[in-house]
Amino acid sequence: MGSDPKVRAGAVDVVRHWQDSGYMIIYVTGRPDMQKHRVVAWLSQHNFPHGAVSFCDGLTHDPLRQKAAFLQSLRTEAEITIVAGYGSTKDVSVYSSLGLAPAHIYIVGRAVKKFHNQCQFLSEGYVAHLAQLEAAALAHSPKGPPRPVLGKGTYGCPAPVDFLRKQSQLLRSRG
Questions:
Q1: At what angle do helices 125-139 and 11-20 cross, to 10 degrees?
Q2: How do residues 94-109 score in pLDDT, each as one tens digit?
Q3: pTM value > 0.85
Q4: Which of 1, 55, 63, 111 could form a disulfide with 121 if both were Cys (CB 3.0 to 4.6 A apart)?
Q5: CA 166/CA 36 separation, integer angstroms
Q6: Rounded to an integer, what distance in angstroms lies between the CA atom of residue 63 and that of residue 29?
């Protein structure tokens, strides 16, 4: 909205951790689709990994409902399993409605007592969270040949693809 939000220390590294572990990255925002180029340019400028980007269709009074509907359609229509969600306290209800366990809903910032049992607050920031993710990955690493993972930035497509589509276009392309 005219300003350049600062990137929290370690945020890009956390997203890269998930991508390097073979997960598809999906950025879901309540911003209207008319801000698509600005948001995607910001993600690129700050070196966030490639991923699908979802915007609200035009201006809306209930962006959280659109976020939830989009993620639910990914689960049902595209058969995508959502394993973790990051955001603000406003997003807790979105992720909870999808059945995501509180242990996999990550909120950066000061803990709010009201949400204590509904999410994990990353009060110490993304750098500390990344250390926890890496420690857990080492503890649960498989003891055999490595499993196949998706190529960085390609998501299994023959050539790099621009995932800058509105929600309905993304779902049609997966159809």
A1: 20
A2: 999 999 999 999 998 8
A3: no
A4: 111
A5: 9
A6: 8
